[in-house]
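BUG: 3D viewer hangs when loading the predicted structure for this chain

Environment: internal workstation, default settings.
Expected: structure renders.
Actual: progress bar stalls at 90%.

Input used:
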Amino acid sequence: MAPKTFWDSIQNKQNQLLDVRTPGEYGQGHIAGAFQADWNNFEQFKERTASLDKHKPLYVYCLAGSRSAAAQKWLKKEGFETVINLQGGMNAWNLEELPVEGKKEVKLITFQEFAASLPKDKTVLVDVGAEWCPPCKKMSPVVSEIAKEYEVIYVDGGSQTQLARDLKADSFPTFIAFKNGEEVKRISGACSEEALRKILE
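Structure tokens produced before the viewer hung:
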């Protein structure tokens, strides 16, 4: 699909948008509202796209169109009903001067600052995720339920990349239970509310 038609189509918020480039490419500028799953990191790609809805249209793009074309073919084989590729990728998108959401300037938090901010007298849940991560969005209602009983600290691993590495959060979401300032248990990926509660007990 040509860039301008692609842009018009994704204005329908029922449609899903997937950036199949690397996190570094995504961070240098992406289409607003896009999830990110690196086609070149296939295990991560499978994990993240598993949380997308196969019945809703899925719009995919990369830098020039070849990675997203390969991803489109695979996604269709996996049962996604409608997968539309951006013709020419971000290169064509930028030539048309269509909107790009850039890298946000954020204050980076050191591990020492993070550790100092943890309550020393109770159990808290640290949720390391990113706005572009499909499993994180899927887990949002579950985390909201947990937040009614426990304090939840959100770490944006998309921008706080060094802190995510220091926390050894290699995949998103990663949930870490801290009791009195010390890590006790963790769990990664989409999970049930029951499984999440178990690490807090």
